[in-house]
Structure formats: structure tokens, C-alpha cells
Amino acid sequence: MARTSHRARWWAGLLTIITAVALLTAPAAAASQAGFPPVDGHWADPGPFPVTTEALDAAHTVYRPTILGENGLKHPVIVWGNGTGATPPVYGALLRHLASHGFVVAAADTINAGSGREMLDGAATLIAENGRAGSEYHQKIDVGHVGATGHSQGGGGAIAAGADARISTTVPIEPGPQGRISALHGPMFILGGQADLIVAPPLLVIPRYNQATKIPAIYGELAGATHFTPVGDGGGFRGAITAWFRFWLMGDEQARPVFFGPATSCRLCDDHAWSSVRRNAPAQAIPGS
């Protein structure tokens, strides 16, 4: 009887693991039919979409493909939080870059984005506009694929926003202390700068990565990066951020081997531009290409 019970528990555990892996890979597989043009690994280069920048509402600037919904596309959403004292134009080149890859980016027009609420309000506005007849966004937004990212205090805000059920994945960049990693329900790509003396990775970023035990999480530390490297066009962070969002929000299978699979084939793991790359157990369980 004891042996049968043990065997049953073993099979139940194996089934749980298989189910979890299937669920983790399902969002990308489902979204891969959306028809976004491939970029063949050129994540840091401008994408194929011309970009328009305009006010989304009184509290958000939107960076988006100029023509929305072309050939029936539904565009995933990225919400952005600025660092303390900064506004969206400080990061304008990075936000335009993400929009050029087909994302609709809602950037909170606030110098204090740490609560995550202002970022979530941008997502709520786009979701509402997607359902409003006559809106530029009507039926052109992929409301099921929303990512959150931001820098410094805005990185902490991305973690805080990531607790919301509408957020599929988070990319905190050199994040502040806001938000709780334990509240995240989707995968996280948390970024540090090797030469960042303001949000020092050993003290303030790696410990937060270590708290992610139930979700797939990857820590990437950019060699030589300071706290101000993400300003402007995102510097060396830009390509990896783009690849992450293309995989999780668009289902771009070309981006899978950047992050997943054996350490010998994980491209980020072997890229000398990164001084440290760590992947937790749930991330290592996601299959490579």
C-alpha cells in the first residue's frame, strides 16, 4: 500500500511538472499565429513598423505603430514607468524602439511611478479603447498580452504592477524597492548594471531575483552598465528586452533560444556582453528551440 501511494504521488508530481511546462510555453505558442513580421534575431535594431507618438489620455504618452491592426494584427501592450524625476521623453528612443516592433507602449506621465498604479491605468485605458467603437484602438489591441517594464523607481513600479492579473510578464530594469516579487504571477526578466552604484546588483537586484521561486525568472547583468545606461535608447539592455517581450507577448519563437534551453545553447548565457546571467529552476525547465 505504501509503495502504491508513493508511486501515485510520484506520477502526480511528474504530471504537475509537465502541466506547468505546457502552461508556461502555451502563451507564446498561441500568440505565434498573430502574424508579426520576424526580425531574424535583430532585436536591438529598429523593427518593421513606423512609429507615432501622441497623448493617450491626460496621464499617459503612447508610442505605437502608426498603422494599427494592419492585416488583422492585434498589438500587445507594454506599460512603462520612469525613473524618479524623469518623464517618458527621457527614454523616448527605447519606447519608440519597442513600438517599432509592433507593441503599443503606454508610458505614465509621472516622475513617481513606484506604486505601479499609474502604469496599470495606462493598460486600463488601452483595454477600454479596444472595446470602444470608433476608437483608433478598437479591436486592435491584444488585451491578453500586457507586459510591464520601467527603470529605477519605474522598475519597482513594474514589479508592483506585475501583481495585477492583467500583466503577463515583467522586466524591471535596475529596479527600486517597490513591489513584492512574491506577488508576481508571470515570468520576470530582472536587469542589473555591473557598474550601477545607485541600485547595486549584489545588494538590491540579485536578492530580489532570488525571491522569485515560483515563477520563471532570469537575472541579466549588463557588463559595464551604470544606472544611467537605460536612459535614451536603452543601451545594451535594448535587444534583450525586445527579445523577451517578443517571446512572451508575441510568441516569437526565434527569441526562445535567447533565454531558454540548456546552458550550452542559451544565447544570453553565453553572451560576453553580460557579466552575469542567472536562471532559476522554473526558467531552466522551459524548453529551448
Automatic annotation (TrEMBL):
Coiled coil residues, start to end: none
Residues annotated as domain PET hydrolase/cutinase-like: 44-254
Q: Where is the signal peptide?
A: 1-30
Output the InterPro entries linked to this UniProt entry.
AB_hydrolase_fold, PET_hydrolase/cutinase-like
Q: Which UniProt keywords apply?
A: Signal
Which Pfam families does the annotation name?
Answer: PETase
Q: Which residues cross the membrane?
A: none
| KW Thylakoid (keyword) present | no
Q: Which domain of life is it from?
A: Bacteria
Q: Return the protein name.
A: Acetylxylan esterase
- Protein species of origin: Amycolatopsis samaneae
